[in-house]
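Subject: complex prediction, re-run

Hi both,

The earlier run crashed halfway through, so I resubmitted it with identical inputs.
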Amino acid sequence: MTETRGVWHLLLGNLTYNALPFYSAIAAFAAGLVVVGAISVFVLITWLGKWRYLWTEWFTSVDHKRIGVMYIIIAFIMMSRALIEAVLMRVQQAVAINSPGFLPPDHFGQLFSTHGTIMIFFMAMPFLTGLINYVMPLQIGARDVKFPLLNSISLWLTGGGAGLMMVSLVLGKFSTGGWSGYPPYTGIEFSPGVGPDYWIWAVSLSSIGTTLTGLNFATTIYKGRAPGMTLMRMPLFCWTSLCTSILMIFAMPPLTVATALLALDRYLGMHFFTNGMGGNMMNYANLFWLFGHPEVYILILPAFGVYSEVISAFSSKRLYGYTSLVCATMAIAILSFTVWLHHFFTMGQSANINAAFGIATMTIGVPTGVKVYDWLLTMFRGRVRFTPPMLFSLAFIVSFVIGGMTGIILATPPLDYMVHNTVFLVAHFHNMLIPGLLYGMIAGYQYWFPKAFGFRLNETWGRIAFGCWVVGFYLAFMPLYVLGAEGMPRRSQEVFDTAYRPWLLIAMIGAFILLAGLVSLFIQLRVSIRQRDSNRVFAGDPWDGRGLEWSVSAPPPEYNFAAIPTVTSRDTFAGQKERGQAYHPPKTYQDIEMPKNSAAGVVIGISGAACAFGLVWHIWWMSILGLILIWGTVIVRSFVRDIYKVIPAADVARTEARWLNHVANVRPVPRELETTLANKGLAESVA
Amino acid sequence: MSANEVIHAGLNLGATDPKTHEEAGSAIFGFWVFLMTDAVLFALLFANYGVLLSGTAGGPGPAAEFKLSSAFIETLLLLTSSFNFGMASLAMKHGSQPRLLQVWLLTTLLLGAGFLGMELHDFATMLSDGAAPSRSGFLSAFFALVSTHGLHVFAGCIWIIVMMVQIAVFGTDARVKINVLRLGLFWHFLDIIWVAIFSVVYLQGLIR
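This time it finished cleanly. Structure:
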């Protein structure tokens, strides 16, 4: 090795010219898109002169509402990439019947790995974390989460992980080991490249951020509720947020352990999961699914919460069977820790163990069934309005039940042996996650958007998006059940049975319709922003809502509540409206103390991403510097004493008076006109 | 709410500082939750160790490598340091001057550093015997578990130093007090983990 190479190696580690993605035209194009996209965003912000605004109002903000919005922006960006990847895979399989298609196997492997990793860790997780962040503190009558700075740190760690995923598109190849990254395949012996390292560190950043988020939300719900807001008076979305947070607290550490030990195998030649030398890869399978199964409920429970809120609001009825829904949510949360083994029935346990886990798995169907009946009975004899959030909720109920049925098939070990590792499984979990998670997230986004931004989203485009998401989903995934039953293995880059062709073509069309669904959501946003002046709902209650989040202006003031509300019943705001106690200002306003902005989250997130990037490419100085910056920031921050700002009572009074004046002057809207321009955010009382 | 009420598990400031006591409620609750995530992490490393215990791959096993005398002295050092931290907490709660608190924190720090020194010496001996973590699954699991605990103790030592500086700069203001309470929980938690390591790793390894 020559001296010059030594210097370069010290500076750039294993990163060389060869890392650029010229192995495939599509990969090169995608990389170009990322680079051009990043540069144009940078140029655009600079041209508009918005850097200072973004830095002071958003990046350094510790306001739970701002952080929630930023999480959801990350989710939409990442969803765009992962959905395009899905379309590419569907097209590849449809054309690669006895022909190599247009994606080489290595590239195809990267696509299904990044698709899964992004959809779970950088689409679903940020989306639900964003929704909870925005809504939960408002619902429990709090001014912020309990640890606002920690919230910002979690956001930026997730952002750092997402950034690393995007960098992996430009520099080097991603893992081909799937989203679950099973060793020994992802070990150094069989995957010597940087791919699994990208996967390990991107996922680790996200999982550490999520652990801290769970801690934060749980503490907020246990300790931050308004006076009188007992646990059994919380809106159901708060209950599902609480259960999700508890699951995050207990289920994210196993993932951290799994990825950390895999990293030790890869970097220091240890033998946790290697074939020989005393390693045991089953440990990885157990660790990963100890995380992976509760993760399914981390994803789905918040969506259940959204459905409960949406169905109740758009049926103008209180939620049917509140207590049973709470119990069912808790039961699901606890049972979710008892079923992880059903992800590897075929990996050599005794039949008795498989039977025990199979029965446990089917047990989860019971509380879930309770929920479905509760939702149906909430609609029964209600004033049901078919707005887009409600449509998504209805599509969810039907589709989710179908997915649950196929879940029972998979939970039966002998049947699981037949369809294991086929696209039947792919169909099943997409059937759970698209209706069970994504529809819920989109419904929540449409439902609370007017609260967050002060204007309603366009209904027509909402319906078009709904049509695409539902039709696309059925076309894309029902054929996979058939194909799976016919024995088509999952993750196949090329298939050899022409009988698969019609089904694969239908699935491909479905994938394009799903992409159209996402595009419709973007068009809806664009159209709604353009029409925002006629759709304003500043008064704050466009849907005749029932929870405290609707009792403040839209968008809410930074401090959420001018005076912390006192809660006397469930569905607090609905009760206040019935008793004519809504929109009453407090007798006096007081100074409000709020946390100051901080750059610590940004610094820690970027340093974390730099540390991870250094680890991927063995650029040791960068990793060490990143670590020092992270812990240095933590220590320096602990010396800062001036961390609060005060919003003077006079300012609060002015803000509130402006809103209350507006409320006094707008005409209340009856429910049948709530999707028209007449809706100014004040609900007509249902005397 | 009366300040005498116990509002979180562990040492409460109570009537000695009612305002900080109020504030400590959710701050300490959050830290207990954090410790729970850490406990899950250690539980899994223990389970991993249990599974890989027999995976020595013909290399050195527990009986050959573990030294009871040194593990025992390490235990004493850590348990004594925990006692010292308890005294520090009491000095913070009841003491009028921060000097005493500093002295107890310093002794805790020295004992913790002594523990780390001995542990590193043990590791060095094992490495020179050829019992490196890359030798076998068993040794990988051993080093992962025991050095994760060691890293925690190291982080705790840094934290003690930071707190000593803060006490010197700010005295015992509300944030210092809450952070000392947190650090106390952390330090005692590591003690409990070590007791488990001593029993599960060292005692079990030497009995076999």
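The first helix of chain B runs from residue 18 to 52.

- K.
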